[in-house]
Design brief:
single chain; alpha+beta; two-stranded antiparallel sheet; 2 strands
């Protein structure tokens, strides 16, 4: 999880020369036996092309 967050924030920082970067961590089903913690990283950088977007969850992309 630490490496994932480091990579996402690092990438957002690298490609956002002007604007903002927002990191969010939310608790879902707080009183359930299984805790769900969605993590979001949003930025106003250049984004990901549609061609590259389909590969972002591939290993070693």
């Amino acid at each position: 999880m630490q490496q994932l967050l480091y990579n996402l924030v690092g990438n957002a920082n690298k490609f956002t020369s002007n604007g903002q970067i927002k990191v969010g961590l939310y608790i879902v089903n707080e009183f359930s036996k299984k805790l769900n913690l969605p993590l979001t990283v949003e930025d106003t950088g250049i984004g990901i092309s549609n061609e590259d977007l389909k590969n972002v969850f591939e290993d070693y992309y």
